[in-house]
Amino acid sequence: MAKQRATQGGFGASGLRVRFAVWQAARGPVAQGFTSSPEPRSIGLFAKGRQLVAGNFLFAGHLVEAPGAGLWDITPPDADFATELQGFAWLDDLAALGDASARARAQGWTQDWIARFGAGKGPGWTPDLTGRRVIRWIHHALFLLNGADNAATHAYYRVLTTQTRYLSRHWARAAPGLPRFEALTGLVYAGLSLIGMETLVAPAVAALAVEAKAEIDAWGGIATRNPEELLEVFTLLNWAAQALTEAGHTVPGDHLDAIERIAPTLRALRHADGGLARFHGGGKGAEGRLDQALASAGIRPHKALGHGNAPAMGFVRLSAGRTSIILDAAAPPGGRAGGSAHASTLAMEVTSGRRPLVVNCGSGGPFGTEWRRAGRATPSHSTLGIDGVSSSRFGAGSGDVLEERATVLTLRQQATTEGAAVHAAHDGWAQTHGLTHARDLALSSDGRHIAGADTLISLNPQGKARFERVLAATGLQGVPFSIRFHLHPDTDSTLDMGGNAVSVALKSGEIWVFRHSSRAKLSLEPSVYLERGRLKPRATKQIVLSGHAAEIETRIGWTLAKAQDTPLAIRDLDRDDTPVPL
């Protein structure tokens, strides 16, 4: 891409009110140092650090190639790109590289930010971005100050002090949830670390405990039902608790209780490959981030949420052998938590060992508005959908929130010596078509065989009457539906047995075979895999069972099983993941 140069004040540029608030925060004594040497806890990627040094700036799905340009000289392609720059998470990657060229850029770009934006200009003075930035400045303080001259060192402490006071007065302007956790964690960090800021610690710690109690429900979930966002909240709470403990402070009980509630939920949402289930706008998480967070929390597994017990944040987990299945068994979130909710009720993901098999398309947010909407629709998920109508829908004037949301009517789990099973049903099409969708899944005890059935049924007289009217409108042809199984792009799939089965080969050498027992049409069609950090969607395939519901009950049975000649144990050591996906 062409080299781009400009200032970065165009996206959500702060107004006079914010600049005045920053000016006020700058008044007063400047912290002269740290009470102790900060220890970096945020870990970046070596390969991404090399890309930054080379002038390849990949943020929010956009790549700007500008060798030799300063970070703040490039023109952000959109507001999300500018937001990622202002949050300073890229410091993690430069610190992971750690050589002289990385340090020079980290120091130079930080000093350039201070000169351009340190007085309150630009889009980076929201409380959440300020908290995110403060955490990175403190984590990598030695990296930023090693070899710096007196003027640069003073500027660093001056603006870090300003940001700390700003957070102490304005953290409550952050939206509840992850943004507020970022703001408060940054404030706790700064209060504990900077000389002279000790009086800010107690109010910030108390506020963080209040937020933890309010935002983390009794089952360790958050309102957005986004697994990756839950991991971010968990990580922030861990960082704050560790910093408090190391400084000799007591961590409030509500804070620790929230960490203990979240840990088993995250374990239930973790696939066999160590990645998170990709639902409601979340990705699988940075590699190793989940394991690191769980290890640092030091909470041993003590209850199997989501598997034979209460759902984990609305998700049910089935696991056996090398196989894990995670099913969305709750309504999409609404209200303030619903801005990124997906119409994914009863959608599932399947992973075998280190290899994802059946996936959801993911969040299309990094690829523009149209992709974002498409990624939230039911056809972008591995479940049944009535053609042209998502199971949850936007209302008139509802903006980004799904107003007509599917409700789960029944949810039953069963575990026996033969395996684990789940039955769930939702009413997403009861009002539009008089139909309820029921899904049955059973995983064998060795993890080699999945039996499933998807049913469209009218449950009551009102539903039957509505379905008959819809059926008449189709000329008795029936309501068109499709059951989709989106495949991970690293799989290799082919139609077999004269079009009656699909073979799916994984890079581990495993082969899974999909079959069905119905009058539905089996096809293998194009699909996409939407992944944050890539320049464009990845092409992949989907297994589709399509047909028409012309009766009060239409049931489609199917199986997904390892081929008989697939070994019981496979040595899968191939590390072919691209460190910096393009």
From TrEMBL:
InterPro entries xref list: Chondroitin_lyas, Hepar_II_III_C
Cited Gene3D superfamilies: 2.70.98.70, Chondroitin AC/alginate lyase (1.50.10.100)
GO CC field: cell envelope
Protein name: Heparinase
Subcellular location per the Swiss-Prot or TrEMBL entry: Cell envelope
Domain Heparinase II/III-like C-terminal: 309-559
GO MF, one example: lyase activity
